[in-house]
Amino acid sequence: MSYNFGPYGNPKGGYTPVGVEDVGSTSGSKTETGKDWVENYVFRSHPEDDSTNHPKELMEAGRAYFDQMEAVLKVLHKMAAMSFDLEEDYFNKHFWPGPNGNSLRLAYYPAQDVSLSTLSSSSIRYGAHTDYQTFTILSPDATDDLDGYGGLEVMVGEEWVKVKSEGGLVVNAGDLWVDWTGGRWKSGLHRVVNPSSDEAKGTVRLSVPFFTGPKPDTLIFDVFGGEEQEGVMAGEHLRRKLERSNS
Ligand SMILES: O=C(O)CCC(=O)C(=O)O
Ligand SMILES: [Fe+2]
């Protein structure tokens, strides 16, 4: 298949079909929902992901959006650093100059009026998980605002709550923030459930998450805990998460 360079998270980005990812298996115990009912097209910040990997029209739009998201991210990082009384570029300096862990995912959740042989009967659009790295800046689908359609939900306390964005972006903190802030920030469990009515099953969902993460050799440790701590290497952490999701 064109532009398919291997499993989700491969260095070249590109296309991953339905039935490859099992994102629910990356958070704690093995998932009950099986492979995710989604296909993806990905752009990555990686030397192997160059312009020759992508269809020209898609590349121009994808890279333009990628650049805009990086501009937003730089501001978010400054706000985060200032809120912790750290120097303004404390986080930005671990991302640029790249390559870093940033990637843009175009997620297409097909209509569910037919069943697919690569999925199990318990498959949902995207299994419950926390995001792997630092901020995710998500442009969700407008159908999430309608009950029984779309399906994005976040765990609040012990309850799943619908995320209604009303045209806005959703910013989510991933697992590396928990390590980086010594647990002051939590990573929120979220998922995308299936449409509920027959009519809703005939509709598709499109979302555009921009994942971010520091350069692979960044050692992440509690910024409040002093220099001599054990840390986790950002690139190795991401590699392990992706390995779980694709196996
Ligand atoms: O499709 C969505 O809105 C969310 C997807 C998601 O949670 C993710 O890509 O990590
Ligand atoms: Fe997510």
Automatic annotation (TrEMBL):
Q: Which GO terms describe its molecular function?
A: metal ion binding; oxidoreductase activity
Residues in Fe2OG dioxygenase domain copies: 100-214
Keyword entries, A-Z = Iron, Metal-binding, Oxidoreductase
> Which SUPFAM superfamilies does the UniProt entry name for this protein?
Clavaminate synthase-like (SSF51197)
Q: Which InterPro entries match?
A: IPNS-like_FE2OG_OXY, IPNS-like_sf, Iron_ascorbate_oxido_reductase, Oxoglu/Fe-dep_dioxygenase_dom
Per the record, the similarity remark reads: Belongs to the iron/ascorbate-dependent oxidoreductase family.
Specify the protein name.
Answer: Fe2OG dioxygenase domain-containing protein
Q: Which organism is it from?
A: Triparma columacea
Tell me the lineage of the source organism: Eukaryota, Sar, Stramenopiles, Ochrophyta, Bolidophyceae
